[in-house]
C-alpha cells in the first residue's frame, strides 16, 4: 500500500509508542520516517536531556524551528515529542500537510514499559506522568484527526491504515 500527498503525524504521551509505531508504519507503507526528537538531537548535536537542562522554553523554541523544517517535506511519517501539543502553532504547522493521529496508550502500560529516568519530564516518577497526562489529554484529543488506542503494535498499525482507507484522505495504491 502506498499513500500520497500528506504526512501522517503521530502525537501522544512519552512512551506511548509513537516512534515504534512510526518506524513500523513507515516500513509497511513505504514512507520516509522522521522522529522529531532524533532530528533535534542531530540538529543541535546535544541530547534532549542536555537541551532540557537549558530550560523547557529553550527546548520548545528549537522544536518549533525543527517542525517548520520537517514539514516542508512530504509524504512521511512524523513521530513528535509528547509535548508538541503545548504550542498550537506547532500543531497548525503539522496540520498544513498532515493528518494527526493521537496514539493513546494506557498509563499503566507506559509506566511498566519505559525507563522513566531517560525521559526528561518524567524523572520525578509516575505522579509526574499522571500530571502530564491530565495537562495534555484534552489537547491531544482536540488536535487529532483520529485517536488510536495502543494496546498492541500491529493492531495499532492496522487501525491507522484502516482509518486512512475509510476516510479517503489519500489516493491509495496497492
TrEMBL record:
Asked whether the keyword Transmembrane is assigned, the reply is no
SUPFAM superfamilies listed in its UniProt record: P-loop containing nucleoside triphosphate hydrolases
Q: Which reaction does it catalyse?
A: shikimate + ATP = 3-phosphoshikimate + ADP + H(+)
Task: List localization entries.
Answer: Cytoplasm
Please classify the protein's predominant subcellular localization into one broad category: cytoplasm
Q: Which Pfam families match?
A: SKI
- Which pathway does UniProt place it in? Metabolic intermediate biosynthesis; chorismate biosynthesis; chorismate from D-erythrose 4-phosphate and phosphoenolpyruvate: step 5/7
The lineage's top-level taxon is Bacteria
One GO biological process this protein is involved in is: amino acid biosynthetic process
Record's cofactor remark: Binds 1 Mg(2+) ion per subunit.
Q: Which Gene3D superfamilies match?
A: P-loop containing nucleotide triphosphate hydrolases
Is the keyword Cytoplasm assigned to this protein? yes
Required cofactor(s): Mg(2+)
Which CDD domains does the UniProt record give? SK
Name the residues that bind substrate: 37, 60, 82, 136
Q: Name one GO molecular function term.
A: magnesium ion binding
The protein's UniProt keywords, in alphabetical order, are: Amino-acid biosynthesis, Aromatic amino acid biosynthesis, ATP-binding, Cytoplasm, Kinase, Magnesium, Metal-binding, Nucleotide-binding, Transferase
Q: What is the top EC class of this enzyme, as a single word?
A: transferase
Residues at which ATP binds: 15-20, 119
**Record family assignment:** Belongs to the shikimate kinase family.
Which protein, by its recorded name, is this?
Answer: Shikimate kinase
Origin species: Clostridium botulinum
Which lineage is the organism of this entry classified under, starting from the top rank?
Bacteria, Bacillati, Bacillota, Clostridia, Eubacteriales
